[in-house]
Here is the input.
Amino acid sequence: MIPFASQVLGFIHQYGAPGVFTIVGLEALGLPVPGETAIVTAAAAAGAGGLNIYLVGIAAVLGAILGDNIGYLIGWRYGRVFIERHGAKIGISQEKYAKAERLAERYGFAMVLFARFVVLLRQLNGLVAGSTGMHWAVFFVANAIGAVLWVGMWATIAYVFGESVAVLALPWILHHLLYVGSAAVSLLILALLVFGRKRWLRVFCRRR
Here is the structure.
């Protein structure tokens, strides 16, 4: 059983879609809460007939977008000062933040788009985008697309996989599904970055 699986399961059953919205939103804001686990748990419960999968998906997407945009505003207004003063309280060290900043400065739109699929970036996405001065419209579009892709992938997999499984078995499902899914997503992001970078280089060379 993965950490927090039982707690998340109980919370989701008690509060339903609003619970998913809350957990995902808090994680997007930078807090160390299991947003990805909440989506998988709720979607698998929906597959077993316990929740409405559409409400789960909408709640997760809205929570992700809202949380990241609040983080963006905090980063834009206070920047590194906020992390230096409060980062340690929510598990964000200055080293982690600096690493995320370097990625944002180097990849910009692409980092925001795929940040959802990486644990560290998922928490720092909005804060970093705001503090590095990324235009809000660019951030909003990339963030929204990333949220839809992230929620859509996990919710679809968990919903289909959970249709024929009892809700009591969800912690076991989460344990295997998150590990397999995370590995697959990591490989996908790596491939996109590698091939995408080669494509950009070819275009740049042609223009020159």
Observations:
- The first helix runs from residue 5 to 15.
